[in-house]
Design goal:
Blueprint: E1 9-20, H1 59-71, E2 79-80, E3 83-86, E4 96-99, E5 106-107, E6 110-114, E7 122-134, E8 138-142, E9 149-153, E10 160-166, H2 173-190, E11 202-213, E12 218-220, E13 224-229, H3 232-253, E14 263-268, E15 273-279, E16 289-290, E17 297-298, H4 301-309, H5 315-326, H6 330-337, H7 340-354, H8 357-375, H9 385-396, H10 402-415, H11 419-426, H12 433-446, H13 448-455, H14 462-472, H15 478-492
Parallel strand pairs: 13-14
Antiparallel strand pairs: 1-10, 1-11, 2-17, 3-4, 3-16, 5-7, 6-7, 7-10, 8-9, 11-12, 11-13, 14-15
Helix pairs in contact: 2-3, 5-6, 7-8, 7-9, 9-10, 10-11, 12-14, 12-15, 14-15
Length: about 500
């Protein structure tokens, strides 16, 4: 693909995000939604669409959808209903999908993402709607025997999905990735979905086209819906590829108006290309009509207000508060919030007991997150935040060096003990300011030639004094020793 430095086009991206809601059973029957079960073991006459089987609504799915909609600033209507979306695939046994057409459970709304590079701040990506629907089954293609074979697993049939549809307001693949990252953070924080893409709990379709300026006209390329992306990075790469492909295609045809049928293309993550799957259907092709087996759902104002009260502090608000309350950078607050509710609570307790939020933030991002990753642990497996805060308080007060504190932390982690028990076991003794003063006075008096070199401007000579201090008392804080030595040398010269 040919890339130009200043492309004469504007990228237009809209996303459709299918989120599996965290319910124990399916949307219209009592079958389990557990991932990884043997194929076709979580089915019943309802989700198989057998004659005479009638759907019964899962109220928990309604609650989680409203919870999500409120967090996304959506309007929650007093009445929502169900519609049948007709299409015929092997993994859809009923021949239709129960979805929502003209009265979705959530309307409008927005989610803020970082503004364009250099602009600073945030900007909203507006939503068209978020509606409930049931999932279809899964087609599994096997060519291992030399003959293509397709098998159908209907375990997912009827799993509750919330489809979140954005307006076409994103203009780069990076913006789409940022939107998805922020949305996933919000959904996991609300505990409405686990958003595990590898398990199909979060699936993304990207609608992409270009508005090309040929100097005289603005040509809009046909919209392409791209599917089969199993990570946010794959979404970004697929959009980047599709942008380049569409521009190359436009250069060949020089179309001045939107021409050609809309397409659905799949993403091949191995070859890093999109490929044609089919022409894109319009809403009329699905022949929507109200589902005769399901009554409309009435949502009372008092019930919606009760859910709104239970939302608590949302990730964007927590980020702002951490910056203001603890004086940490926006990036640091971002990292902390991305660790979820447990991580946020751990940091705040740590910062309070340490009495030094910036040091707590540094330890949290470096030592703690590295330890969690290397040992595959959760925050509950770490020493208590209060006890670790006491360790950092000693570092902040100059009683322990960072390096020695890390030894103490590792011992606390391995032995499930307190700071005092760990320091005693390691033979580490806290050194207060008076002991450091006495140590530095002794070094100045016993090393007149080195002191003379330092006074003469040879500052590297202080390393010799630091080395002696380390031998005499390895627990003495090196930074405090250095500062005290320089102050002693300066005052003794006057």
């Amino acid at each position: 693909m040919t890339h130009v430095d200043s492309p004469p086009y504007r990228i237009v991206i809209g996303l459709e995000v299918h989120v599996q809601l965290k319910t124990a059973s399916k949307l219209f029957c009592s079958c389990a939604t557990t991932f990884g079960s043997q194929p076709n073991t979580q089915t019943c006459p309802v989700c198989l669409g057998l004659p005479g089987a009638l759907p019964v609504l899962n109220g928990r799915a309604i609650e989680l959808a409203v919870r999500t909609g409120l967090a996304l600033h959506c309007q929650i209507p007093p009445l929502t209903k169900w519609d049948r979306k007709q299409y015929f695939y092997p993994d859809l046994p009923k021949g239709y999908q129960i979805s929502q057409f003209d009265l979705p459970i959530c309307a409008g709304g927005f989610l803020e993402i970082p503004a364009a590079e250099g602009a600073g701040g945030k900007r909203p990506v507006h939503l068209v709607r978020a509606h409930l629907e049931e999932d279809a089954g899964k087609s599994m293609h096997d060519e291992s025997a030399g003959v293509q074979e397709t098998r159908i697993d209907l375990n997912r049939c009827g799993t509750p999905l919330l489809e979140i549809v954005t307006r076409p307001e994103m203009h780069s693949a990076e913006e789409a990735r940022l939107f998805l990252s922020e949305l996933k953070l919000l959904l996991t924080h609300l505990d409405v979905s686990d958003c595990e893409m590898q398990e199909g709990s979060l699936r993304v379709d990207a609608n992409v086209n270009l508005h090309v300026n040929d100097g005289e006209n603005i040509a809009a390329t046909p919209i392409v819906e791209t599917k089969n992306m199993n990570s946010f990075r794959a979404v970004q790469r697929a959009i980047e590829y599709e942008v380049a492909r569409q521009y190359e295609d436009w250069k060949q045809t020089r179309a001045t108006t939107r021409t050609g049928a809309k397409q659905t293309r799949g993403w091949d993550d191995v070859r890093q290309v999109t490929f044609l799957q089919r022409e894109k259907e319009e809403s009329a092709d699905y022949r929507y009509f109200p589902d005769p087996d399901l009554l409309p759902v009435t949502l009372t104002t008092s019930w919606i207000e009760e859910i709104a009260k239970g939302l608590g502090e949302l990730p964007a608000d927590i980020r702002h508060r951490l910056e203001a309350e603890y004086g940490i950078k926006a990036y640091d607050a971002e990292v902390i919030v991305n660790q979820g509710r447990e991580g946020i609570a751990y940091f705040e307790t740590l910062a309070r007991h340490a009495g030094a939020a910036k040091r707590a933030s540094a330890w949290f991002q470096q030592d703690l997150l590295r330890t969690l990753k290397e040992r595959n642990l959760t925050f509950s497996a770490l020493p208590s935040a209060a006890e670790l805060g006491e360790l950092l308080r000693r570092v902040e007060g100059g009683l322990l060096e960072n390096a020695r504190a890390r030894d103490v932390f590792q011992h606390m982690l391995d032995s499930s003990c307190t700071v005092d028990q760990a320091t005693a076991a390691l033979g580490i003794v806290g050194v207060d300011a008076s002991e450091i003063e006495a140590l530095c006075q002794r070094l100045v008096e016993e090393n007149p030639s080195i002191v003379s070199q330092i006074r003469g401007g040879k500052m590297q000579a202080i390393g010799a004094l630091m080395g002696q201090a380390k031998k005499i008392n390895p627990d003495a804080n090196s930074q405090l020793v250095r500062e005290t030595l320089l102050r002693r040398i300066e005052s003794s010269a006057q």
